[in-house]
Write a structure and sequence with these properties.
This protein is an alpha/beta fold. Helices cover 33% and strands 19% of the residues. The chain is globular, with a radius of gyration of 30 Å. It starts with 14 loop residues before the first helix and ends in a 5-residue tail after the last helix.
Length: 577
């Protein structure tokens, strides 16, 4: 049996030979497709194509120059089966090798004589280019799934964005421009509105919804010869140009030192550290197991509390959050960590009280700030917003039983800390525990409608972050330095136009993302011991968080790291860690 069907292209072939070939062809596919649902239509279309000269015509010769392989045949068989059982679905033209694209067009037109010839293929080719040229789409096909791998070594997608040809309306003048949309890791949903621009209509005709999945870093499973590599900043966004960037080898002596179980607990939430990941080679980030990456402060550790320890630590306490969505993500992580479930969730942009936390023994309140959508002249000041949160959360003890967490991605500055001190003094609450969550990476992509920071402006943020840290310590506040943690992983943001979200609340059935694997012992026993210990800590931590009966789950490993450091600082004074 030959792998490729081979018909002689002979213009002198007589009728008998032609019949013989057609019988062979029909018998072959009857044999291959026996007990299947589509042999008759497949054989019929195949023969019609042959008779119409597709096999022998010029178009075929230009595209294929060879006979169908078994892989091509299998692809066509699958395609025909799908055509026969579309149900209520509208076909999105399948992605296959270029050599059989003309075949697919012919099959689609013959099997769907009532459809518009070429309409779906035309849509598909446009989608492949990620709508570089947005064409008229079929109104029945409104959901288009796309894949996007952001970590391929390709300078054209170094900054994961989707360009669109768009028309922007400004004071009744239409301006054609390119609109950029940032793609976060995981699922991104984009709605595109088609509008009738005629003065008579002036209304939205239809909405196209794009679902684009951006893949995470590819991970290579660990082998025996892995080593430890560390990094603080990515070479694609240098915060400290004078310092090294990217993966750097870590000495075995240092790994041995930080692998000791008696390693001291970090005394503050801004201890300098680095991301450590196991790799076969520090010179090639494709050889790393990124699932095992961990944040490691220098010469100390942040203790991970068990659920009973955390419940005892936060029993009888009131925890007040004020800030933007980055603070909100940490708050929801805390609620899920305490309750082992997240029963309710919403993108709160006001003030909300959560009383059913830790079996009702812990109260958590949250106030969104700044309310950027309100006219600046009407927008509440930070002082007013803080006063409102304190009033809604009363009665409050003037002790460390009351915890105030303040922070945002980039709006916070040292003046806000002065206001905090003034308000707490006026409210007789100077003895409460205040934790300042500092700035974070974000707004580093040019996105329409969102302010954009250049590299030098991002570097200035680092300097502003240091000023905030110094001011916080001056007032005796605890800190959580999120800028140092997020800057090296700036590409790994989740859905959102700011490129600053490192958390996402998802339905639990979609959140089974944790892969606890047994690491093979490295020939370098010290390195293997370190990552084995880290794996155990992560397992312990996740055992107290993941509950698949919970309606929602907060996902995001970077947000998880920040949240655990925050919890360790909350409980440090109580001796829980």
């Amino acid at each position: 049996v030959h792998e490729h069907l081979n018909f002689q292209d002979d213009d002198n072939m007589d009728f008998e030979d032609q019949n013989t070939e057609e019988f062979l062809l029909k018998d072959t596919f009857n044999f291959l497709l026996s007990n299947e649902s589509s042999p008759s239509i497949f054989s019929e279309i195949f023969q019609r194509l042959y008779r119409s000269g597709v096999f022998k015509g010029e178009n075929y010769q230009k595209e294929l120059n060879q006979c169908l392989s078994l892989e091509d045949i299998n692809s066509i068989m699958t395609f025909i089966k799908e055509l026969r059982s579309l149900g209520q679905f509208q076909l999105l033209f399948p992605s296959i090798t270029l050599g059989t694209q003309s075949w697919m067009r012919e099959f689609y037109d013959m099997a769907n004589p009532m459809g518009k010839p070429g309409s779906v293929p035309t849509q598909y080719w446009s989608l492949l280019k990620v709508f570089e040229q947005f064409q008229l789409l079929n109104k029945k096909a409104q959901l288009y799934p796309l894949e996007w791998n952001s970590f391929t070594e390709d300078e054209n997608i170094e900054k994961p964005q989707v360009p669109f040809d768009a028309t922007e309306h400004k004071k009744d003048v239409s301006v054609s421009s390119v609109a950029n949309y940032p793609l976060g890791l995981g699922t991104n949903k984009i709605s595109m509105f088609v509008v009738d621009e005629s003065p008579v209509q002036g209304e939205s005709l239809i909405t196209y919804k794009l679902t684009i999945h951006r893949e995470d870093r590819p991970s290579l499973p660990l082998f025996e010869d892995f080593t430890a590599c560390g990094f603080v900043q990515d070479c694609g966004l240098l915060i400290h140009p004078e310092e090294t960037c990217g993966l750097q080898p870590i000495s075995p002596d240092y790994i041995e030192a930080i692998s000791q179980s008696e390693l001291k607990i970090c005394s503050s939430g801004d201890t300098k550290g680095q991301w450590i990941v196991p790799c076969l080679s520090c010179s090639d980030n494709r050889t790393c197991d990124w699932r095992e990456i961990t944040w490691q402060p220098h010469n100390c550790q942040y203790g991970v509390l068990t659920k009973p320890q955390l419940q005892r630590c936060l029993e009888g306490r009131k925890i007040l959050f004020i800030g933007d969505s980055t603070n909100r993500g940490i708050m929801y992580y805390l609620i899920e960590r305490l309750n082992e479930t997240l029963q309710e969730w919403q993108k709160v942009h006001g003030t909300k009280i959560y009383r059913n936390v830790n079996d009702g023994k812990t109260l958590i309140s949250y106030s969104y700030y700044p309310q950027f959508w309100i006219n600046p002249s009407m927008r509440p000041t930070f002082e007013k917003a803080l006063e409102h949160l304190l009033q809604r959360s009363r009665p409050l003890e003037n002790t460390r039983q009351t915890v105030l967490v303040v922070g945002g991605v980039q709006w916070l500055n040292s003046n806000h800390l002065q206001i905090i001190h003034k308000v707490l003094k006026r409210e007789n609450l100077l003895n409460v525990l205040v934790i300042i969550k500092t700035l974070g990476i974000g707004f580093h992509l040019p996105v329409d409608g969102v302010h954009f920071l250049t590299q030098s402006e991002v570097q200035n943020l680092w300097k502003e972050n240091l000023i905030i840290l110094d001011a916080a310590k001056k007032y005796g506040y605890e800190v959580l330095d999120t800028f140092a943690i997020t800057m090296g992983r700036y590409k790994e943001f989740l859905q959102g136009t700011c490129g600053c979200h490192f958390h996402e609340v998802v339905k639990s059935k979609l959140s089974k993302e944790h892969h606890f694997i047994k690491i093979k012992q490295s020939r370098n026993h010290i390195v293997g011991k370190y990552f084995s210990n880290q794996n155990k800590l992560q397992q312990q931590q996740q055992d107290s968080v993941i509950n698949y009966q919970s309606p929602y789950h907060v996902r995001g490993p970077i947000n998880e790291v920040c949240s655990e450091i925050l919890l360790s600082r909350m409980c440090a004074s109580k001796g829980a860690v």
